[in-house]
């Protein structure tokens, strides 16, 4: 990696804070283990660094979305359970078996393919069974669960590691869907052979003891995203993004900035340009809405976010010069504030942060 002193922007990632968040979540879920969802490259923060740090802290269960993600992590997580949340693609069953990766099965067809792989291997194979209780994307439907209950031979050769479901609206405690899903999950899981259960996601951990299970699966909260919207964030912030001022120019009243002249100076202005744009994952929707901070002062993002550059109104900051650092994510402007200004959620902002930033890991 190139040194930070030639980079226009630096993304600091606090591995110690991620571990602290995992410990906080574990303390709130004493009924069972707490795993780590490291899909999407650990929400864009480098799963190859995050996952080993969590394992060293005591995490023993990991989830990715894709088989490719799990294959990258398998050598780095000896002895840990590593499972893939997305349904297995036809023909990949032998890869799961050979690499010791646990599939999450969500249909009778997938169960049949995994059972056939167990027969070919001449051994029992572990799997997680996913019951759909309301998300309607992946998972066994009620009729499929009843089919399995009526014919136990359909699960011969499969060792059920966990039975799981995915909560639809756990970040809103008052939503009746939460209790409805919990009851539906308990009812359908009881039809299957006895096995440990996995229910709560990040927000589900905060829904109370009724949502505790043998394994919680937090993702977003590990990375500092608030699992309790509308209340103070109990998690530690994990990322800080700073960018260097490339240029500062004086602008006469009436002059425009950026593509399509969407912003014009109403007074003589000073414009600071940063080397960050939508190619770096800085949302284009922040055009004329976003901000940066310098010495605690807010600088409005003016004009369009372009591919490589953004521009900020630095009028009145005579001491701001090329080379100065502006905060894009940090104490003055948390991730949640960026997401709100961009009209999206924190997940999208975090997972979009690009590879052109110079990355620094703290607490490694």
Q: What's the CATH first level of the largest domain? A: Alpha Beta
Please give the number of β-strands. Answer: 19
The overall pLDDT, averaged over residues, is: 97
State the assembly state of the protein chains: single chain
- How many DSSP H or I helices? 10
Q: How many domains is the backbone divided into?
A: 2
H and E string: EHEEHHEHEHEHEHEHEEEEEEEEEEHHE
Helicity level: 25-40%
Largest sheet strand order = 3-4-5-6-7-8-9
Basic shape: elongated
Strand content: 15-25%
List the topology elements.
Elements: E1 9-14, H1 15-27, E2 33-34, E3 36-37, H2 39-44, H3 47-57, E4 61-64, H4 67-73, E5 81-84, H5 93-99, E6 102-105, H6 108-121, E7 125-130, H7 142-150, E8 158-164, H8 176-189, E9 197-198, E10 215-216, E11 239-251, E12 256-257, E13 263-264, E14 269-274, E15 291-294, E16 297-300, E17 310-313, E18 325-329, H9 335-342, H10 346-352, E19 358-362
Helix pairs in contact: 1-3, 9-10
Question: Could you provide a short overview of the structure?
Answer:
The chain is an alpha/beta fold. It has 2 domains: 15-223, TIM Barrel (Alpha-Beta Barrel), CATH 3.20.20; 239-333, Lyase, Ornithine Decarboxylase, Chain A, domain 1. It has helices spanning 15-27, 39-44, 47-57, 67-73, 93-99, 108-121, 142-150, 176-189, 335-342, 346-352; strands at residues 9-14, 33-34, 36-37, 61-64, 81-84, 102-105, 125-130, 158-164, 197-198, 215-216, 239-251, 256-257, 263-264, 269-274, 291-294, 297-300, 310-313, 325-329, 358-362.
């Amino acid at each position: 990696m190139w040194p930070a002193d030639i980079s226009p922007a630096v993304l600091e990632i606090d591995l110690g804070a991620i571990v602290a968040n995992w410990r906080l979540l574990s303390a709130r879920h004493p009924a069972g283990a707490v795993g780590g969802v490291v899909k999407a490259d650990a929400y864009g923060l480098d799963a190859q660094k995050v996952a080993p740090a969590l394992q060293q802290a005591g995490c023993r269960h990991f989830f990715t979305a894709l088989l490719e993600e799990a294959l990258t992590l398998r050598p780095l997580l000896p002895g840990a359970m590593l499972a893939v949340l997305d349904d297995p693609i036809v023909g990949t069953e032998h890869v799961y078996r050979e690499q010791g990766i646990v599939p999450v099965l969500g249909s009778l067809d997938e169960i049949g393919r995994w059972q056939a792989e167990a027969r070919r291997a001449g051994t029992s194979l572990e799997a997680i069974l996913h019951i759909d209780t309301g998300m309607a994307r992946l998972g066994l439907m009620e009729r499929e669960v009843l089919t399995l209950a009526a014919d136990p031979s359909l699960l011969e050769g499969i060792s059920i590691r966990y039975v799981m479901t995915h909560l639809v609206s756990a970040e809103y405690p008052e939503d009746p869907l939460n209790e409805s899903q919990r009851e539906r999950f308990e009812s359908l899981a009881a039809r299957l052979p006895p096995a440990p259960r996995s229910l709560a996601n990040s927000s589900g951990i905060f829904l109370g003891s009724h949502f505790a299970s043998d394994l919680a699966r937090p993702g977003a909260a590990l990375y500092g995203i608030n699992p309790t919207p509308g209340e103070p964030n109990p998690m530690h912030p994990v990322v800080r993004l700073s960018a260097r001022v490339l240029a500062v120019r004086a602008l006469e009243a009436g002059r425009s900035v950026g593509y399509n002249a969407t912003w014009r100076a109403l007074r003589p202005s000073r414009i600071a340009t940063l080397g960050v744009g939508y190619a770096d994952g800085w949302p284009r929707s922040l055009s004329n809405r976003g901000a940066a901070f310098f010495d605690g002062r807010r600088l409005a993002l003016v004009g369009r976010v372009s591919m490589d550059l953004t521009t900020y109104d630095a009028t009145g900051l005579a001491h701001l010069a090329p080379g100065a650092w502006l905060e894009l994510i940090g104490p003055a402007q948390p991730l949640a504030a960026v997401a709100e200004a961009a009209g999206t959620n924190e997940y999208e902002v975090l997972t979009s942060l690009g590879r052109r930033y110079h990355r620094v890991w703290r607490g490694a």
